[in-house]
Design goal:
Elements (H helix, E strand, L loop, with lengths): L1 H17 L2 H15 L3 H13 L3 H17 L4 H19 L4 H37 L1
Helix pairs in contact: 1-4, 1-6, 2-3, 2-6, 3-6, 4-5, 4-6
Length: 136
């Protein structure tokens, strides 16, 4: 019975880890507001979405991979996920763009990645802790 409850907790926390898009985007909007004013705020975040298409799906898969890596006891998997994401986005982030807006896209990429990993790690911590309590 404990195994069943642990599986339910792992599945529910996994869903919580994967469903972090709204929280991550809210954080990015809040940070973006602090760096610019007025119309430039929407422009910066919107330009980041145009420069880095597919970011939502990449974020979902990133959080899933981080969650599974931690729950499975393979923390080196986090390094693999970050390396693949960084190398996959490197050409787009490195492309010659003009001035401040290009730097802002890279900054939002890094902040979004860190926030996404922390979100998944928090849910994994909850899942591992809850399963430890259930097993005790």
């Amino acid at each position: 019975m404990n195994l069943l409850w642990c599986a339910v907790v792992l599945a529910m926390c996994g869903c919580g880890a994967v469903a972090g898009n709204r929280a991550i985007r809210a954080l990015l909007r809040r940070i973006d507001r602090g760096g610019a004013r007025g119309a430039a705020v929407q422009g910066s975040l919107m330009s980041a979405q145009k420069e880095l298409p597919g970011g939502r799906w990449i974020g979902v898969l990133e959080r899933l991979a981080v969650y599974v890596s931690i729950v499975a006891g393979f923390p080196a998997g986090i390094a693999v996920v970050l390396a693949v994401k960084g190398l996959g986005r490197y050409p787009e982030l490195r492309a010659e763009k003009e001035g401040r807006e290009a730097a802002r896209v890279g900054e939002l990429f890094i902040i979004g990645t860190f926030a996404s990993v922390l979100w998944a790690a928090a849910w994994a911590g909850i899942a591992v802790g809850a399963c430890a309590l259930i097993a005790a």
